[in-house]
Amino acid sequence: MEADFSKSPKPAGRAGGKTKRFPSMNKNKGKREKAMKQEGYLAGVDLGATTIKAGILNEKLELIGKARTLTPAGKGGEALTAALWQTVLLACRQAGVSEKLLTSVGVGCPGSVDQKSGRLLHACNLSLIDDDFSGRLEGLCQRPVYLENDGNCALLGEWKKGAAAGFSQAVMLTLGTGIGGGILVDGKLYRGFNGFGGEVGHMVVQADGPLCSCGRRGCFEVYASASGLIRMTRQAMKEDRDSLMWKLCGGDLLKADGTTPFLGLQQKDEAARRTVTLFLKYLAVGVTNIINLFQPEALVIGGGVGRQGEALLGPLRRLVAEQVYSRYGGAQTNILSSALGDDAGIIGAGLLGKENGSYEMSVL
Fold first, then answer.
1. Which domains does the chain have, with CATH numbers?
2. CA-based nearest residue to 48, from 226, 218, 298, 257
3. How far apart are CA 197 and CA 177, in angstroms?
4. Cβ pair 264, 244 in contact under 8 A
5. Which of 129, 309, 352, 356 has its CA 20 to 30 A from that of 25?
6. Which residues, other chains included, contact 289 with Cβ-Cβ below 8 Å and sequence gap of 6+?
7. Exposure b/e, 148-166, CB count within 10 A at least 16 = b
8. Is the dihedral of CA 12, 14, 18, 24 positive or negative?
9. Beta strands in 246-360 (DSSP E)
């Protein structure tokens, strides 16, 4: 099943529970449209398992203010929505905009969303299942809320204003705590018939590998996410006490992050080289699988690890070129770095509320 961005998604709804819905979701539509046309700002939120990033878009769809807070993961849906709204308010202050001028709040979540009800069906990295997320947030912020998968939001942002602009066949990968994915087929976002489509991070790349938060073993995101890279880095440091990576993180293993092995690689540290090589091996396996399935014109890589730019993409392109099924053909997929960086998901989420959710994504 495909969801066409040329059609207006229904505002997030509610199926059961006691959360009071924002009344204008089904009434006063004309007033909301008039308000948007006169003046208004869009809030976009990239909700991650580690951080909440919020931004404010003006009528020209320019990002004019941002804020970031820690995600209260594992503390329940109410704590999560409260923290999210507070992050939006911080972004408003940074932008010098009153929250009263916000016309909507768009949220990109790391999980599967029911577009009709607005419920968050499953977000394993947030420990939420069948959660009335948008209904609760609307009750808190008293304005329309639009909920979407975070990878889809990042793809929307890159398609509108970034590296995926002009392509009708594209895939977005965000390498963060997990791996988010967005898939564009013939100018339409692919979600699957039940809203669970596009979860490329839970494609197995190593049978019987480490346990993933989804319950399977050896998932793509276990190896090729920022979390996977950090785990590999710390293991390499434990095995080599003379590695330069110890110096790079001040002798504190817990301070090693996704940049540590790439910095070590620049200084020709052997343990860092092995770590980056292993990480690229699994990233290339997953990317090759995705290209073999969809043969997109472009595959855009974002998220924290994506900030490594050509240090990551150069060797990745070479590995994929050796493995991809279409290597003997003509045109090949462009593997690109995100043009919007961490802002892709924020901008894409904000765009969900443009013209009351009528966000255009058709390529003609």
1. 2-158+346-351 (3.30.420.40), 165-338 (3.30.420.40)
2. 226
3. 19
4. yes
5. 129
6. 203, 205
7. bbbbbbbbbbbbbbbbbee
8. positive
9. 298-302, 334-337
- Residues with Cβ within 8 Å of 310's Cβ and at least 6 positions away in sequence, in order, are 337
Residue found under tokens 């730019």: 309
Whether residue 212 is predicted with pLDDT greater than 90 in this model: the reply is yes
The percent of residues above 70 in pLDDT, for the chain, comes to: 87
d(CA 308, CA 306): 5
Residues 323-353: tens digit of each pLDDT = 999 999 889 999 999 999 989 999 999 999 8
Looking at residues 36-59, what average pLDDT do you find? 86
Kind and range of the H or E element at 293?
A: helix 270-294
The answer, yes or no, to whether residue 14 has pLDDT greater than 80, is: no
Answer yes or no: are the C-beta atoms of 67 and 94 closer than 8 Å.
Answer: yes
pLDDT on residue 36 = 42
Do 130 and 17 form a contact (C-beta atoms < 8 A)? no
Q: What torsion do the CA atoms of 126, 130, 132, 133 make, to the nearest 10 degrees?
A: 20
Tokens standing for 33?
């449209």
Q: Indicate the residue type of 84.
A: L
When pLDDT is cut at 50, 70 and 90, the band that residue 42 belongs to is very high
